[in-house]
Specification:
heterodimer; A: about 120 residues; mainly beta; 12 strands; about 0% helix; globular; B: about 120 residues; 7-stranded mixed beta sheet
Protein backbone atom coordinates (compact mmCIF):
# COMPACT_ATOMS: atom_id res chain seq x y z
CA UNK A 1 0.00 0.00 0.00
CA UNK A 2 1.16 3.51 -0.68
CA UNK A 3 0.82 6.44 1.70
CA UNK A 4 1.73 10.09 2.06
CA UNK A 5 2.30 12.09 5.23
CA UNK A 6 2.21 15.85 5.50
CA UNK A 7 3.21 16.37 9.13
CA UNK A 8 2.18 20.02 9.36
CA UNK A 9 -1.47 21.03 9.22
CA UNK A 10 -0.46 24.66 8.76
CA UNK A 11 2.69 26.57 7.89
CA UNK A 12 2.98 30.29 8.62
CA UNK A 13 5.58 32.41 6.90
CA UNK A 14 6.15 36.11 6.33
CA UNK A 15 6.03 37.48 2.82
CA UNK A 16 9.47 37.48 1.25
CA UNK A 17 10.78 34.68 3.44
CA UNK A 18 11.54 31.19 2.14
CA UNK A 19 8.93 28.52 2.68
CA UNK A 20 9.01 24.75 3.03
CA UNK A 21 6.04 22.41 3.07
CA UNK A 22 7.00 18.90 4.12
CA UNK A 23 6.00 15.60 2.58
CA UNK A 24 7.13 12.03 3.17
CA UNK A 25 5.88 9.00 1.31
CA UNK A 26 5.77 5.24 1.30
CA UNK A 27 5.40 3.24 -1.89
CA UNK A 28 6.59 -0.01 -3.44
CA UNK A 29 9.18 0.53 -6.10
CA UNK A 30 10.09 3.84 -7.67
CA UNK A 31 7.70 6.66 -6.80
CA UNK A 32 6.01 9.21 -8.96
CA UNK A 33 5.53 12.28 -6.75
CA UNK A 34 3.28 15.29 -7.28
CA UNK A 35 2.39 18.57 -5.63
CA UNK A 36 -0.98 20.22 -6.12
CA UNK A 37 -2.37 23.49 -4.78
CA UNK A 38 -5.99 24.18 -3.94
CA UNK A 39 -7.44 27.64 -3.57
CA UNK A 40 -10.74 28.15 -1.70
CA UNK A 41 -13.71 26.54 -3.43
CA UNK A 42 -11.57 25.51 -6.37
CA UNK A 43 -10.19 22.31 -7.78
CA UNK A 44 -6.61 21.18 -7.53
CA UNK A 45 -3.99 22.78 -9.71
CA UNK A 46 -0.88 20.86 -10.67
CA UNK A 47 2.38 22.46 -9.47
CA UNK A 48 5.14 19.98 -10.25
CA UNK A 49 6.11 16.34 -10.41
CA UNK A 50 9.09 14.08 -9.93
CA UNK A 51 9.36 11.09 -12.21
CA UNK A 52 13.05 10.48 -12.68
CA UNK A 53 16.26 12.41 -13.20
CA UNK A 54 17.38 15.43 -11.23
CA UNK A 55 16.30 15.39 -7.62
CA UNK A 56 15.42 19.09 -7.71
CA UNK A 57 12.27 19.69 -9.68
CA UNK A 58 11.09 23.14 -10.70
CA UNK A 59 7.42 23.89 -11.21
CA UNK A 60 4.81 26.60 -11.56
CA UNK A 61 4.76 29.95 -9.74
CA UNK A 62 8.40 29.68 -8.62
CA UNK A 63 7.88 26.53 -6.59
CA UNK A 64 10.38 23.69 -6.50
CA UNK A 65 10.65 20.39 -4.71
CA UNK A 66 13.52 18.15 -3.75
CA UNK A 67 13.27 14.39 -3.99
CA UNK A 68 15.28 12.60 -1.31
CA UNK A 69 15.18 8.86 -1.78
CA UNK A 70 16.99 7.95 1.45
CA UNK A 71 14.61 10.04 3.53
CA UNK A 72 11.59 9.20 1.34
CA UNK A 73 10.75 12.88 1.24
CA UNK A 74 9.56 15.36 -1.36
CA UNK A 75 9.43 18.75 0.35
CA UNK A 76 7.97 21.72 -1.49
CA UNK A 77 9.99 24.93 -1.38
CA UNK A 78 9.94 28.49 -2.59
CA UNK A 79 12.75 31.00 -2.03
CA UNK A 80 10.48 34.00 -1.43
CA UNK A 81 6.84 33.61 -0.40
CA UNK A 82 4.01 35.78 -1.68
CA UNK A 83 0.72 36.53 0.06
CA UNK A 84 -0.99 35.05 -3.00
CA UNK A 85 0.70 31.71 -2.25
CA UNK A 86 -1.66 31.26 0.68
CA UNK A 87 -3.62 28.11 -0.10
CA UNK A 88 -3.93 24.41 0.69
CA UNK A 89 -1.11 22.24 -0.63
CA UNK A 90 -1.32 18.53 -1.29
CA UNK A 91 1.46 16.04 -1.88
CA UNK A 92 0.57 12.88 -3.79
CA UNK A 93 2.29 9.67 -4.77
CA UNK A 94 1.76 6.71 -6.96
CA UNK A 95 3.95 3.76 -7.79
CA UNK A 96 5.50 3.78 -11.24
CA UNK A 97 6.27 2.93 -13.90
CA UNK A 98 3.69 0.65 -15.43
CA UNK A 99 1.29 0.96 -12.55
CA UNK A 100 -1.95 -0.24 -14.05
CA UNK A 101 -4.12 1.64 -11.61
CA UNK A 102 -2.61 5.08 -11.95
CA UNK A 103 -4.29 5.91 -8.64
CA UNK A 104 -2.93 8.86 -6.71
CA UNK A 105 -2.68 8.72 -2.93
CA UNK A 106 -2.87 12.15 -1.33
CA UNK A 107 -1.55 13.51 1.91
CA UNK A 108 -3.91 15.27 4.26
CA UNK A 109 -2.88 18.70 3.04
CA UNK A 110 -0.97 21.61 4.55
CA UNK A 111 -2.45 25.07 4.77
CA UNK A 112 0.10 27.73 3.90
CA UNK A 113 -0.50 31.18 5.36
CA UNK A 114 1.73 33.98 4.10
CA UNK A 115 1.47 37.15 6.16
CA UNK A 116 2.27 40.57 4.66
CA UNK B 1 -8.20 23.29 -24.78
CA UNK B 2 -10.91 23.31 -22.17
CA UNK B 3 -10.06 21.77 -18.85
CA UNK B 4 -11.93 19.11 -16.95
CA UNK B 5 -15.55 20.14 -16.61
CA UNK B 6 -17.80 19.17 -13.75
CA UNK B 7 -21.41 19.98 -13.16
CA UNK B 8 -23.21 20.96 -11.18
CA UNK B 9 -20.74 22.93 -9.08
CA UNK B 10 -23.06 22.84 -6.12
CA UNK B 11 -25.76 20.28 -5.42
CA UNK B 12 -28.17 20.19 -2.52
CA UNK B 13 -30.14 17.04 -1.80
CA UNK B 14 -32.39 15.87 1.00
CA UNK B 15 -31.71 12.57 2.70
CA UNK B 16 -32.94 9.68 0.59
CA UNK B 17 -32.71 11.48 -2.75
CA UNK B 18 -30.33 10.64 -5.56
CA UNK B 19 -27.30 12.69 -6.57
CA UNK B 20 -25.83 12.61 -10.06
CA UNK B 21 -22.47 14.22 -10.62
CA UNK B 22 -21.11 14.69 -14.13
CA UNK B 23 -17.56 14.96 -15.39
CA UNK B 24 -16.29 15.70 -18.89
CA UNK B 25 -12.57 14.96 -19.21
CA UNK B 26 -10.11 17.10 -21.07
CA UNK B 27 -10.11 16.66 -24.82
CA UNK B 28 -8.05 13.66 -25.76
CA UNK B 29 -8.16 12.13 -22.29
CA UNK B 30 -9.74 8.72 -22.02
CA UNK B 31 -9.08 8.04 -18.33
CA UNK B 32 -11.23 9.44 -15.55
CA UNK B 33 -10.80 9.30 -11.79
CA UNK B 34 -13.21 10.29 -9.03
CA UNK B 35 -12.03 11.49 -5.62
CA UNK B 36 -13.91 12.60 -2.54
CA UNK B 37 -12.74 15.34 -0.20
CA UNK B 38 -14.25 15.70 3.22
CA UNK B 39 -13.91 19.11 4.93
CA UNK B 40 -10.31 19.89 5.88
CA UNK B 41 -9.12 16.52 4.61
CA UNK B 42 -7.15 15.26 1.65
CA UNK B 43 -8.64 13.64 -1.39
CA UNK B 44 -9.54 9.97 -1.22
CA UNK B 45 -9.58 7.90 -4.37
CA UNK B 46 -12.92 6.38 -5.27
CA UNK B 47 -12.87 4.94 -8.77
CA UNK B 48 -10.89 4.84 -11.99
CA UNK B 49 -12.61 4.41 -15.33
CA UNK B 50 -11.79 4.21 -18.98
CA UNK B 51 -14.39 4.47 -21.69
CA UNK B 52 -17.08 1.87 -20.90
CA UNK B 53 -14.88 0.13 -18.33
CA UNK B 54 -14.35 0.36 -14.60
CA UNK B 55 -10.67 -0.32 -13.99
CA UNK B 56 -10.40 0.14 -10.24
CA UNK B 57 -13.27 0.78 -7.83
CA UNK B 58 -11.44 -0.12 -4.66
CA UNK B 59 -12.28 3.24 -3.06
CA UNK B 60 -15.99 3.15 -3.74
CA UNK B 61 -18.41 2.38 -0.93
CA UNK B 62 -20.00 -0.99 -1.57
CA UNK B 63 -23.56 0.31 -1.47
CA UNK B 64 -25.41 3.26 -2.99
CA UNK B 65 -22.45 4.49 -5.08
CA UNK B 66 -21.89 3.71 -8.74
CA UNK B 67 -19.91 5.21 -11.60
CA UNK B 68 -19.90 4.94 -15.35
CA UNK B 69 -18.07 6.40 -18.30
CA UNK B 70 -20.09 5.63 -21.42
CA UNK B 71 -18.78 5.60 -24.94
CA UNK B 72 -20.52 8.90 -25.57
CA UNK B 73 -21.00 11.62 -23.00
CA UNK B 74 -19.59 12.46 -19.59
CA UNK B 75 -18.65 10.23 -16.72
CA UNK B 76 -21.36 9.99 -14.08
CA UNK B 77 -20.96 9.39 -10.36
CA UNK B 78 -24.28 8.37 -8.91
CA UNK B 79 -25.16 8.30 -5.24
CA UNK B 80 -28.49 6.75 -4.35
CA UNK B 81 -30.41 7.43 -1.14
CA UNK B 82 -27.96 10.05 0.03
CA UNK B 83 -27.17 10.48 3.72
CA UNK B 84 -25.65 13.44 5.56
CA UNK B 85 -22.26 11.70 5.61
CA UNK B 86 -22.15 11.91 1.82
CA UNK B 87 -21.75 15.69 2.07
CA UNK B 88 -18.35 16.42 0.57
CA UNK B 89 -16.59 17.82 -2.45
CA UNK B 90 -16.33 15.33 -5.28
CA UNK B 91 -13.52 15.88 -7.73
CA UNK B 92 -13.02 14.36 -11.11
CA UNK B 93 -9.61 14.13 -12.77
CA UNK B 94 -8.54 12.97 -16.19
CA UNK B 95 -5.33 11.93 -17.87
CA UNK B 96 -4.11 10.62 -21.17
CA UNK B 97 -2.62 7.21 -20.94
CA UNK B 98 -0.11 5.24 -22.82
CA UNK B 99 2.83 3.14 -21.75
CA UNK B 100 5.10 5.96 -22.81
CA UNK B 101 3.10 8.62 -20.99
CA UNK B 102 2.41 6.66 -17.83
CA UNK B 103 3.91 9.45 -15.71
CA UNK B 104 1.38 12.05 -16.82
CA UNK B 105 -0.20 14.07 -14.08
CA UNK B 106 -3.93 14.05 -13.54
CA UNK B 107 -5.84 17.22 -14.33
CA UNK B 108 -8.59 18.07 -11.90
CA UNK B 109 -11.96 19.63 -12.40
CA UNK B 110 -13.39 22.34 -10.11
CA UNK B 111 -15.39 19.81 -8.12
CA UNK B 112 -19.01 19.36 -7.17
CA UNK B 113 -19.90 20.31 -3.63
CA UNK B 114 -22.68 18.07 -2.41
CA UNK B 115 -24.69 19.11 0.60
CA UNK B 116 -27.18 16.67 2.07
CA UNK B 117 -29.81 18.24 4.27
Amino acid sequence: AQSVAQPEDQVNVAEGNPLTVKCTYSVSGNPYLFWYVQYPNRGLQFLLKYITGDNLVKGSYGFEAEFNKSQTSFHLKKPSALVSDSALYFCAVRAGPNNAGNMLTFGGGTRLMVKP
Amino acid sequence: NAGVMQNPRHLVRRRGQEARLRCSPMKGHSHVYWYRQLPEEGLKFMVYLQKENIIDESGMPKERFSAEFPKEGPSILRIQQVVRGDSAAYFCASSPRSVRDSANEQFFGPGTRLTVL
